[in-house]
Amino acid sequence: MNKKVLVMCTGNSCRSIIGEALVNKELVGVEAYSCGVAPSGKVNPNAKKVLQEHHAWDEKYYSKHLDEVINIPFDLVVTVCDHAYETCPMFPRPTPKIHVGFKDPDGQEYKAFEKTYDEIKAILLPKITKFLEGK
Fold first, then answer.
1. Which of 7, 9, 23, 128 is catalytic?
2. Using CB atoms within 10 A as the burial measure, which of 20, 39, 89, 93 is most buried?
3. Residue among 21, 81, 124, 128 flagged as catalytic
4. Architecture of domain 3-125
5. Is residue 120 within 8 Å of 22, Cβ to Cβ?
6. Would you say 67 and 92 are in contact if contact means Cβ atoms under 8 Å apart?
């Protein structure tokens, strides 16, 4: 299975970066990207730290705008915050979308980032797998 998945949130600094990294680490045959509808331009240091601690960080991860990835033929777009879900744009070709919202850990203690990592791994990855296997 060679599938491409886009994980999208508002700032592309925490949740979507963690989702991208987890998909790339855990799901065989799936390549993930991430972006934001209003990217912050930086990866939150605690998001990077939690990924490093779980051996999921890669220097290729950075905060980027949807415009940088919109022409990639994705098999699935996943929104991980309500704002991205509500403002998710049309893609050049029909692309299935699912929404799985997670609380934004930005501005909170490191423990919140660990919780977000665990939730994304436990909730989002099985949903992506189920969706892609059903295709």
1. 9
2. 20
3. 81
4. 3-Layer(aba) Sandwich (3.40)
5. yes
6. no
